[in-house]
Every structure is written in structure tokens, then in C-alpha cells.
Write a structure and sequence with these properties.
Number of helices: 4
Strand content: 5-15%
Helix content: 40-55%
Structural class: mainly alpha
Order of helices and strands: EEEHHHHE
Shape: elongated
Length: 117
């Protein structure tokens, strides 16, 4: 599905002259749709995700990386007492994490799917 995400003030009459309003076009993969025969381009739809899917996405995208970053930073800081090297080590620790997420993206995509209401 291709959706148009708009900010709250995008519908304002002066939105074209204001930098605060913005809209973005996003593409969302909607899996498990059994009947699309009644749909056509331009039809309004409601794309949903369950609370479990949202929580899992937040955990994978922000929670685990944050905990990994902080734990490596604290460990490296205690081992080396060098703030610069500890910060670099903490940032570099995210590379393998996001690499593993990338490798398992198809499996993750199946578990984090949207549906049409």
C-alpha cells in the first residue's frame, strides 16, 4: 500500500507557505490480505497493526539497541577509563546488531505485519 502521511497542520489553508507542514509518501507492506477484489487505487483504507506488533517493533528498533549501547559504554568505560574509546566501542557494537536484523529481515517482516481493517 502506498500511503500519504501528513502532519496535523497539512490541511491548513496556508500550509503551502509554512515550513511546519509536511507530508511524506510511504510504502507499507500489507500481508495476509485474502480479498482485494473490492479495492481499487484511491480507495480509503485503514492500515492497522496489533499492540503486540507495535511493542515488538519498538523493542527491536529502539529498546535492545539502547540497552546494548549503554551496557557496552559502561563496560568499556570501566575497562579502559577512556571516554572516547568507550563511545566508539558502544557505537560500533550496534553494527553487528543491525547486521543481524538485516539478515533476518524476511523472518521479522512476517512477524511484524500490518493488516487492513
Amino acid at each position: 500500500m502506498r500511503i500519504l502521511q501528513t502532519s496535523a497542520c497539512a490541511a491548513c489553508k496556508v500550509a503551502g507557505h509554512c515550513n511546519a507542514s509536511e507530508s511524506k509518501e510511504k510504502i507499507v507492506d500489507v500481508l495476509n490480505v485474502s480479498d482485494t477484489s473490492g479495492m481499487k487505487v484511491g480507495d480509503p483504507v485503514v492500515v492497522c497493526a496489533s499492540r503486540d506488533v507495535a511493542n515488538r517493533a519498538l523493542l527491536l528498533g529502539f529498546g535492545i539497541p539502547f540497552l546494548l549501547l549503554v551496557s557496552v559504554l559502561i563496560t568499556a568505560l570501566r575497562l579502559t577509563s577512556e571516554e572516547g574509546w568507550a563511545a566508539i566501542a558502544a557505537l560500533l557494537s550496534l553494527v553487528p546488531y543491525y547486521g543481524v536484523l538485516y539478515l533476518f529481515r524476511n523472518k521479522i517482516r512476517q512477524r511484524l505485519s500490518f493488516y487492513i481493517e
